[in-house]
């Protein structure tokens, strides 16, 4: 047991306003992120189970959360347990709280029937004892594809506007996984929160002819496509034409198997540190895969 006799263990407290606010304060102090917007962006993922320790004043001093993340892997949907929000207040470190909460979360995942585990971290050695191993992530880069599609036909979206938020939310409900090789399926709350956090770096545009939402950015002569939300993923050539991007190079942060883009070459992605349980890692290592930042957790 951890040295936490002066603390109160709690779990499943996302529905309690005071506890949620306490967790938000902890994560903002440790990671400089604010999870409060998820409450008006569509709500907290109902599968998420937080485990934490609170002090006598109601402050959250340690947390580790697990949630269900459906993944498309080689054309099959897997029910995977994903872990996030692992944090301990500096004054309470060295007491075994983090390890205790991790073990509770991993036990919960097994008891609720998840077939594999996944997490993002820049400290992979911490999770090796739990049977996880690093999986190398890739971006995909190539020449701008040619297209016979008409010129630009897109509309910039802002999650500050209720109509745009509704459109994005509705399309997330019917989206096709951006890749059949490896992609998150669904996960509306995760996409919306990441899009909100990254709104100054990533543009969301609605492509009217393709009925698709594209998350993208242009850097000099390079177009970066971070994600595509559509009931049927359109070819990359049509996406580029609709965006009106005058670039010589395109890069995606996800596997491009649905983009009809034969020129793509895999390039190691230094932005993502992904770990997975052995069985899932073996599948992901069969050929290069990427991970969109709109699904980061």
Automatic annotation (TrEMBL):
Under InterPro entries, the record lists: Acyl_CoA_acyltransferase
Highest taxon listed in the record's lineage? Bacteria
**Cross-referenced Pfam families:** Acetyltransf_9
Q: What is this protein called?
A: GNAT superfamily N-acetyltransferase
Q: Which organism is it from?
A: Martelella mangrovi
């Amino acid at each position: 047991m951890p040295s936490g006799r002066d603390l109160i263990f709690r779990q499943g407290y996302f529905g309690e306003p005071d506890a949620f606010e306490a967790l938000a304060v902890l994560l903002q102090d440790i990671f400089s992120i604010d999870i409060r917007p998820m409450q008006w962006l569509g709500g907290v993922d109902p599968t998420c189970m937080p485990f934490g320790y609170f002090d006598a004043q109601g402050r959250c001093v340690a947390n580790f959360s697990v949630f269900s993340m459906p993944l498309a892997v080689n054309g099959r949907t897997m029910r995977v347990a994903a872990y996030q929000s692992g944090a301990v207040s500096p004054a309470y470190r060295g007491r075994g709280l983090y390890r205790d909460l991790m073990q509770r979360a991993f036990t919960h995942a097994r008891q609720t029937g998840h077939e594999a585990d996944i997490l993002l971290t820049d400290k992979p050695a911490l999770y090796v004892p739990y049977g996880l191993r690093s999986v190398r992530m890739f971006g995909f880069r190539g020449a701008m594809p040619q297209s016979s599609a008409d010129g630009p036909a897109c509309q910039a979206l802002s999650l500050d506007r209720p109509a745009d938020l509704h459109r994005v939310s509705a399309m997330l409900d019917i989206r096709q996984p951006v890749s059949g090789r490896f992609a998150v399926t669904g996960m509306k709350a995760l996409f919306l929160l990441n899009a909100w956090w990254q709104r100054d770096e990533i543009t969301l545009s609605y492509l009217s002819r393709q009925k698709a939402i594209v998350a993208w950015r242009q850097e000099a002569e390079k177009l970066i496509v971070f994600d595509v939300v559509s009931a049927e993923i359109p070819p990359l050539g049509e996406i580029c034409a609709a965006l009106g991007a005058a670039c010589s190079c395109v890069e995606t942060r996800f596997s491009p198997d649905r983009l009809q883009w034969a020129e793509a070459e895999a390039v190691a992605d230094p932005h993502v540190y992904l770990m997975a349980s052995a069985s899932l890692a073996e599948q992901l290592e069969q050929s290069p895969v990427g991970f969109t930042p709109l699904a980061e957790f």
